[in-house]
Design brief:
alpha/beta; 11-stranded mixed beta sheet; 619 residues; Amidase signature (AS) enzymes; two-stranded parallel sheet; 20 helices; globular
């Protein structure tokens, strides 16, 4: 009996204890204040006073590959992920740093800078045929160094042989079709129509025969990133499910411009799915991991991966890419070619399926600086279908072939050296070349650059995850595994984070304006590492590697976030033969200065031939 009574009392005690604990938890969960708990220390940022400290930031989230990628994706998109994992990822990626910074300024959501010169008008001609010829006539970029170094075929080489009758656009197009097949391991080209290619080439050949060419670049071969609508091809943005059987009925605006000049649109090029990655690793069917022509075991970079790889492999003369977070410059650097991200809204994005509204740009990828300059001028200009770009000045181009007398270049050496040792050495070796050119090179400090990079990261991920929302909810399983994880992370960024990041953009623009009152250019490595090695487990479902993305994007974010133009040019190769890119950034609309500096460096650097290269001019 005593035992029974004791057991009854114990059970009652446990019930009371359990009920008390449950009640206390409910009270804590429902009634105790979570937000607004102080005191909390805030950093105050005031207008005109900028933080000059440089804080190297390394993302500490480990790389996940293979089945682990799928596991992380499942967790990130679960209730556990929403409550715990995504918050940890935001913390480790420094996404929360602006929550304790007070800025009494308005946010800037688009980096449209007020013009101080007359606006160009839709339909204005940036270059006359004579000016195009002048640029073309010096585009061989043979360099000032001794020896018989390698040189890419540039636009001038094609046009000269078309005019002389040594070859024809038809013959070159046939070679380009063969080059696509011979370079399949690169995964650079994803869609092409042989009948269409031959038809375009035959029309161009006939125009040369009858002296009725549409422009001085008639017959030049180009490829187009899958993010642009290209008539006759499904417009899929690197996905496996978007309109796979619905060919686009019209070209995007910039593709129309190129066709009107007589360019041959060879193919649609591979890209990182939706442009949300920087490696070019697209696990979707029909795409695959894109590789640099300098080494098949290394990624091409992304997201304009196929354009850079195809141009570097000699398949095309120019690729039309986009750049929301280095997506032109990163693959151009990894594939040993030249890529320009122009000023924000300089090139129309009409007909582009871009997800990054305020940081996205379109621009050219080519084998030499003069070709980049030429195509930049020809694809730029106001477009009524792209209102953001209606207020822009006419394109300026520099006089190529000279020195850099009078140009003042700033370098933040703390920022410049925040990269791999081989990158730092090779890019540092380019600095004396600039000094010997007549330019002045001055050490300076660029304020708040680390925070600007994080603010860009918050903004681009927020914009992309917002713009993909309907697909994310209705086509979830059709999206690649790594993209699902990143979109889930983007959806967990708060409105506070986004507003604060764009207040930081206001400061970034002010800082950049002050910098370019003193200097004509800012120089950095293009990336913090050479092309990343491909791990076997990267390929099946993709991988998630935030640290790698951080290294890829370390130097490119300023250009996207503030809208200033930036160009990458190869300045050497590491011990594995992988290219190293050097970046030049200039003030808004001053692409001419960036091009002038890049062209000077190009003349001083000996190029190396890619392991996979097609000479489509060869008989």
């Amino acid at each position: 009996m005593k035992v029974y009574v004791f057991a009854t009392i114990s059970k009652l005690g446990m019930d009371v204890l359990t009920g008390t604990l449950i009640g206390a938890f409910i009270f804590w969960f429902v009634c105790i204040r979570h937000h607004g708990k102080g005191p909390k220390k805030y950093k105050i940022r005031r207008k005109g006073k900028y933080d000059l400290e440089y804080i190297p930031r390394t993302v500490t989230v480990p790389a996940v590959r293979g089945w682990k990628t799928s596991l992380v994706c499942k967790l990130a998109n679960s209730y556990f992920g929403k409550m715990f994992l995504l918050d940890m990822m935001l913390q480790n990626g420094d996404f929360k740093i602006f929550r304790t910074i007070k800025m009494k300024i308005n946010p800037t959501f688009y980096p449209n800078i007020e013009l101080t010169e007359p606006c160009a008008k839709p339909g204005d001609i940036n270059l006359t045929n004579e000016e195009i010829e002048e640029v073309l006539n010096g585009s061989d970029a043979k360099g000032d160094f001794d020896g018989n170094g390698f040189n890419f075929n540039c636009a001038q080489d094609f046009v000269r042989q078309y005019k002389s009758g040594e070859t024809t656009p038809t013959a070159v197009a046939e070679n380009a079709i063969i080059a696509i097949t011979n370079s399949e391991k690169l995964n650079a080209i994803v869609k092409y129509d042989i009948a269409s290619i031959k038809k375009q080439a035959a029309a161009s050949t006939e125009r040369y025969r009858t002296d009725t060419t549409l422009s001085p670049i008639d017959g030049v071969i180009i490829v187009v990133k899958d993010e642009f609508a290209v008539k006759g091809f499904p417009h899929t943005s690197g996905s496996s499910y978007r309109h796979p059987n619905e060919p686009a009925e019209r070209d995007s605006g910039v593709v129309t411009k190129m066709r009107d000049l007589g360019c041959i649109v060879l193919a649609v090029a591979n890209m990182h799915e939706f442009g949300i990655g920087t490696t070019g690793n697209n696990p979707n069917k029909g795409f695959g991991a894109c590789r640099t022509p300098y080494h098949l075991d290394h990624f091409s970079g992304g997201s304009s991966s196929g354009c850079a790889s195809a141009v570097g492999a000699g398949i095309a003369t120019m690729g039309i890419g986009t750049d929301g977070g280095g997506s032109i410059r990163i693959p151009s650097a990894y594939c040993g070619v030249v890529g320009l991200k122009p000023t924000f809204a300089r090139v129309t994005l009409a007909g582009v399926d871009g997800l990054s509204n305020s940081v996205g740009h379109a621009g050219p990828i080519c084998n030499c600086v003069r070709d980049v300059a030429l195509f930049h001028a020809l694809m730029s200009g106001p477009d009524p279908e792209y209102p953001l770009g209606l207020k822009q000045p006419k394109v300026k181009l520099p006089k190529f072939g000279g020195n850099l007398d009078g140009i003042k270049i700033g370098i933040d050496r703390r920022y410049f050296k925040d990269c791999a040792p081989d990158m730092f050495k090779i890019c540092s070796d380019a600095l004396p070349l600039l000094e010997s050119s007549g330019a002045t090179l001055e050490t300076t400090e660029f304020a708040e650059i680390s925070d600007i990079c994080i603010a860009h990261r918050i903004t681009i991920l927020s914009e992309m995850s917002t713009n993909i929302s309907s697909d994310f909810d209705n086509e979830f399983n059709a999206i690649s595994v790594p993209s699902r994880t990143l979109f889930a992370l983007g959806r967990s960024v708060t409105a506070q984070d986004f507003i604060q990041a764009n207040k930081q953009r206001t400061r970034a623009i002010e800082i950049t304006e002050e910098f370019f009152k003193k200097y004509d250019a800012l120089v950095t490595p293009t990336t913090a590492q050479t092309a990343p090695h491909i791990h076997p487990d990267d390929l099946a479902v993709g991988s998630t590697n935030p640290n790698q993305d951080s290294l890829n994007m370390r130097f490119v974010a300023l250009g996207n976030f503030t809208g200033i133009p930036a160009i990458t040019v190869p300045v050497g190769y590491n011990d594995e033969g992988l290219p190293v890119g050097f970046q030049i950034m200039c003030a808004w609309w001053r692409e001419d200065i960036a091009l002038q500096i890049a062209e000077y460096l190009e003349r001083k650097i000996a190029l190396q031939k890619p392991r996979i290269y097609n000479d489509i001019l060869a008989p």
